[in-house]
Amino acid sequence: MNKLFLLFLFFITLIQVCFAQQGNPILIDTAKKFNISEHGYFYEDKNLNLSIDSIVKYKQARKLIPLIPGKVFSKGYTQSYYWIAFDIENTLNESVHLMFKEQSSSINQLQLFKVDQLGKIYPLGLTGDHFPFKQRPYRNRSFIYPMVLSPHEKATFYLWADKRGQNMYMPISIGRDVDIIQAEIPQHTLFGFYTGIFVFAVIFNLLLYASVKDNIHLYYAIYIFCTLIFILEEEGLAFQWFYPNLPGLQDYMRLIMASLSCGLLIQVMQLFVNQNSTNSRLYRFTNYYKRFCWAMSIIPVFMLFKSFILLEKTVFYINNFLALLTVIIIIICVVERIRAGYKLGWYYFIATVMLLFGVFNYVFNTLGLTNFNLLKPNGLVVGLTAEIIFLSFALTQRYNFLKKEKEILLEEKSKHQVDLADGIFNAQEDERTRLARDLHDDLGGTLSIIKLNITAFQHKVLKLTENDRLFYDQTISMIEKACADLREISHNLMPKNFEQLGLIETLNEHFRTLNHSGKIAFEFVFQVEHPIESGMEITIYRIVNELVNNIIRHSFASKATIQILSFDERISIVAEDNGIGFNPDMDKKGLGTQNILSRVNYLNGKIQVDSNQNGTTTVIDIPLK
């Protein structure tokens, strides 16, 4: 019973095929468009030797295969010629102007023939990517043939297509000339819109690269440019706009841009998620894979000069495989970085998932596994556009993330530098205190004992000769000077009773000593409204002491004024003298000046120096908060 049923289905199918080839014409009426897939049939010329006469005989012999109704003619990668045939009958009492449209935009060679009822053959033009653009019957990105039918005319049309080395994917249709042309307008508008987005993204990233000098923006701009050229190649617009007199270039440019885009996308991913050998086990593999993609982009360059079918077939399948593999590798690498705690990787993950659906849709259509587009104009264009928009947004988020991260690092560095400076200055003060104590207690005591022992021999001095007595007096003077110098050094290292007296009283005592024994008259002016923190007090003392030492050693002044004024938010130190002045730019390398600058910087203060032949004024502002 089952065998009889299958036999019955076979005969029904055979009858349908015979009926289709005997005559199921497209009836031309007042409609705007007409469906070919429900009326046409095709034949695969694997030997590449059929002529129009042969295919006409094949049709008469009913050797052609019906097209699948409602489906785009798609056979995947091919090395054959294909013939498509369909009958037309004008049912109107007037002539009709139609257009036949093949919309794949990428065909090596294409020719349409018209065979009238008497069997006479009329070639309607040979065109394709292997011919200059101006040779097309109608100058459009798609392949369009004008067709004119007389009243009640019947004819058969045969389309010969050479897409060797590519996927046999040919959306074909017939419609009235006005409607076919008008249908191209929204398509051009749509691609103009997408092209505008891509161009804007390229310019935006180039400007960012010029501004922030981050290589990711340069690589991403090149990637967007390559994908834009690839999309325009797929739609036939690059051939129409950029190189209409270079036939054949389109096929190879598409392969070059596809391979370059895969490698660049891996490079952008590595930079975006900060993938390196220390945080990713896949880093070495992605590096090799990226270089392989770039190497693959070189092969089509050589194919421009010499190529053969086997090489074209290999490159075709490798490029489609790379498109799928690249997106999968990126998703795996990004997930690895997300799991490692790199939260910014979620942006790249979402952008890549958007691209994934478009790439799968495009590759499956290219390989002939599917023959539909998820979105208009096609899944690849929409997927790339969504990825570019979202990833451009993600790059701005990455910039903000890196900016915050840099601020945190700078804050930590600043804190570390403050802690380091605190440690250095505290160590210096501790060492100064120890040295002052050791000098005073040990060396000072030793000098005092030496002086005491020597002065014990005063009663014997009278017995000495005049020269020996002079030597004795010089020795006593030298010991007294050494003791005075020791007291001064010890006082400079750590003022006596500084912790008990504080900054102001210590300086008051210091200036009284200077005015008593020095040649410069110092005036000390102070106004301190709030207590100064002890660590800041000793640093301010060091600053004032260096200012005073510079005045004493270099100014040749007779008068000087030192002011310390404390306010709610700052402390102001002003040192003025009536000396000969100096060049602040020339004397910045002096040890005293360097000591002042280092301590002012440690307190986050600012220093201004005004010096001329009438004297020098130094103003230092130190913030309290």
TrEMBL record:
Signal peptide: 1-20
Major enzyme class: transferase
Source species, domain of life: Bacteria
One Pfam family per UniProt: 7TMR-DISM_7TM
Record-annotated membrane-spanning stretches: 191-209, 216-232, 252-272, 292-311, 317-335, 347-367, 379-396
Catalytic activity, as annotated: ATP + protein L-histidine = ADP + protein N-phospho-L-histidine
Gene3D superfamilies assigned: 1.20.5.1930, 2.60.40.2380, Histidine kinase-like ATPase, C-terminal domain
GO molecular function, one term: protein dimerization activity
Gene Ontology annotations for the cellular component aspect, listed alphabetically: membrane
InterPro entries the record matches: 7TMR_DISM_rcpt_extracell_dom1, 7TMR_DISM_rcpt_extracell_dom2, HATPase_C_sf, HATPase_dom, His_kinase_dom, Sensor_HK_TwoCompSys, Sig_transdc_His_kin_sub3_dim/P
Keyword Plastid part of the UniProt annotation: no
The EC number(s) this enzyme carries: 2.7.13.3
Keywords tagged on the record: ATP-binding, Kinase, Membrane, Nucleotide-binding, Phosphoprotein, Signal, Transferase, Transmembrane, Transmembrane helix, Two-component regulatory system
SUPFAM superfamilies found in the cross-reference section: ATPase domain of HSP90 chaperone/DNA topoisomerase II/histidine kinase
Domain Histidine kinase as annotated: residue spans: 438-625
Protein name: histidine kinase
